[in-house]
Records
---
Amino acid sequence: MSTPSEKNRSQSRFLSLPDLAARSAGGAVLWANDELFAEKENLITPGSAEFRPATFGHKGQVYDGWETRRRRDLGPDAADAAIVRLGVAGIVRGVVVDTAWFTGNYPPQISVEAAFVDGYPSVEDLVEKTQWTTLVERTGVNGDTRNPFPVDSPRRWSHVRLSIYPDGGVARFRVHGEGVLNPDFADGMTIDLAALENGGRITACSNMFYSSPNNLLLPGTARTMGDGWETSRRRDAGNDWVEVHLAGRGTLNAAELDTSYFVGNAPGVGRLSGRDGNGDWFELLPPTDLLPDTRHRFLIRDERPITDARLDIHPDGGMARLRLFGSLTADGLQGIRESWDASA
């Protein structure tokens, strides 16, 4: 029988996966039935919620979260809700309902549902016509707390609905999981095989003292140093590194090592390796000097297929983004198709 601490570790293991709902990952809050006190868009803001006491606006204390008015129709099914479009369709492994700073005004209970809707559905279609599947049953939450809930569902989802019972405030809503690439957007194309939106994911990392390595795979360019991956300062002879499982088996033709915004803490040297399955690592880019605050682009001349890549930085420091451009092999594309169909 597992101990309570082992159970907690198992339940929260999903927290290392990227947040598919985050604004920085392309997520958006499309609808809420009420947001009188605080805007729904705050739910997916990267970073922790902030609080400044005695900051009152016309409608009351200003909260860094989503807050609805007090309901007076307190029937058994009274609830407020918000719908989030994920930045990338994916398999949800767990969610976090964070009620930070909400103490006397948090919802006593929540539930989470999801749907996969192809294309770009209207808000009306999502609210009135979409069939939703329960990911987290109606359950209690605590105030001023990060409330994690593991999800056991093999299907891919594009939209998630958070319901709160009967009303109140939620600071952040995190949806952790793995992106699933639509094979129609990979067949015969050169894509970023490491990108979160294409199904790439971080599998191992030596150090993430200041910020998560998941930031390396986010879409777009970093806007601040906090948008990247930064390690603590090493005081030994080693170096830091990160490993990425690609969207599928493929061959690389270019790589981008971006140190944007890292001025006094960029790595001095970068090295890129790859491997096919559980095979040995082999060098794709030899140790190469890196400059601060620079997007470095390198051609990759090695045509051997890989499923995983490893970036070594020497000795430590920060990287904004890692891009690995290439194309899927025939069996890599087939694997993507099978994953897409299996998660329908």
Note: The longest helix spans residues 330-342.
---
Amino acid sequence: MKMKIQQTTLQAVFSEISRFRGRDIMQHIHLFVNEEDGLTFRVTDGEVTYVKKVALSNGEDVIVEILTPGELLLPPKFEEVTRKLSSGMMSVTLLDMNQIEVKQGKTSAKINGVDGELPGIPEHVKGDGITLTTEVLTSLVTQTAFSASDKDARPILKAVNMQSDETSFKVTSTDSHRLSQKSIPKPLKLPTLNIPAKRLAEVVNALEEKQ
């Protein structure tokens, strides 16, 4: 695997995905490099899997240049090294023995990587889903998630419930003392879901920050 990427783009990606990285091996970032799709970064903390895609260009400037496609696990040290580089294009090459070489101008570094797969990341297979704007999703979550319980005694109450009937899509949460519900007059084909409120709110916050 070999590519060139804007250093500022890489640091922006790390900043966005950092909250969803776990501990130990799950601190690593899975990077898939493909000439058709560009770059796909995936991280997980065991509960949330966050995927960030980077296109080859923004229509005017080249952001990524792929010389050899492939995939690898980026260790935490990779982020530390690239953060110290200046803005501009830098090259990243996967060498033998899972070493990762980083170059920019006269500066170069080799970082020891690891072999294997990142645990906790399921195969990326799309099933049935729905499409909501960030604004609508934010409204649904922020007006309900605060009522969810933070107690472990009844885990189901720590979740936000999502379900649809023939007339509307409803989002509900309760800690058994208070109940919050928000609905939109749009039936959506989605099975009933219970999603951990705290983690859902974190994902929504990340989406808002991208706007």
Note: The helical segments are 7-17, 76-83, 134-142, 197-210.
---
Amino acid sequence: MTVDPARDALLVVDVQGDFLPGGALAVPHGDAVVEPIRRLLPRFGTVVATQDFHPPGHVSFASASGAAPYAAGRTADGREQTFWPDHCVAGTPGAALGPGLAADLDRFATLVLRKGTRQDTDSYSAFRENLDPAGRRPSTGLGAWLGARGVRRVVVAGLALDFCVGWTARDAVAEGFQAGVYLPGARAVFPEHDARTLAELEAAGVAILRAPL
């Protein structure tokens, strides 16, 4: 694809210390996304960086539920949830943007969006939270913000392909944007499921951008 700086936005999802090697919830080869993303940043007029920014004892933490880390289960009120090691706790080094990318995002990011800030609700997508206790998926306001800037297409990169990146891309399509996932700048928590993840994204109308832009 050819990047149109006026109408395309780059969404850099959760490239944070806890998702990088040595972090509390390290994504396999997560540091491989940094250089491909850095090369893209100057080409977009709108760049949004997201951060998981959880309170202690967040609903997604295995330690708060008694579940095993990485287990799929349900919250106390019956919502589906994958339970994770404690990660990206607000104000901790693990929640900070990754050191290989932070300086560049300081220069190029138009918006830094923090998500997962509510104690009782997880938030994978940059556009909408996961189901809350009332059975809703509240908007983060990102869709309206991008639309007001004239954005019509988004390119999504970061961590992790099978969770926050994928959910963000699908929700972008649902909000009326063209959306593509930039594979050179994305890695998965469970890379053994990449073929299924990519098939599900394509079925949802998300373009898979395999070649460098």
Note: The chain has one domain: 8-54+91-209.
---
Amino acid sequence: MAAAAANLEDVPNDVLFHELLRRMKCAPKQEKRLILVGPPGCGKGTQSPILKEEHCLCHLATGDMLRAAVAKQTPLGLQAKAAMDQGALVSDDLVVGIIEEALKRPSCSKGFILDGFPRTVVQAQKLDAALEKQGVKVDKVLNFEIEDSVLEERITGRWIHPASGRSYHSKFAPPKVPGRDDITGEPLLQRKDDTVEVLKKRLSSFHEQTTPVIEYYLKKGVVRNIEAAKPANVVTQEIQKAIS
């Protein structure tokens, strides 16, 4: 406790004040535990920050959490690193353990958004068991539904300016000069994952893995289908209705 107090003394006043205001705003919020499911390019990355801010939730991306646990050399992080160093997959139990650790943070007191996990029914069962130990459960699984053909148009039309990160789309946000950055005139590049061939493989794997998980949560009555092809602001409204 003394160490924490000492650390707080070094935190700038504006940061402390901002955090105090945030906690006051979040205090009356209802707890929500959400899982977002959807293929690459469906819009989860657009909607997650909105949900996080509006409902004071923490965003749990398992890949980022694993890397953070390894970097901090937590007991679970060391176990995960040992598995990765041997070229093995990190076990479901380890991933769930890292999620359990994260849920103890004050930032997760009002609930969470879980993205990228669970990918299998076994993982879903282990997650449910871990939450049950804390006396809580998944409230809603938001299933971002969108046709593969729409995703293909969305994703394969994306181009970026590597130096700045500026992004364009050949149809929805084209550069002034085809293939050139608006500011520098330098060539635009397409990410390796944004080709038709790679996308089709990713979508096939996604559908194969995810269908059983959706069926699992359908039986629990917590799945809400979201029409993800609609404009982003309309999707936001649909989500608010689904989780209210």
Note: The longest strand covers residues 32-37.
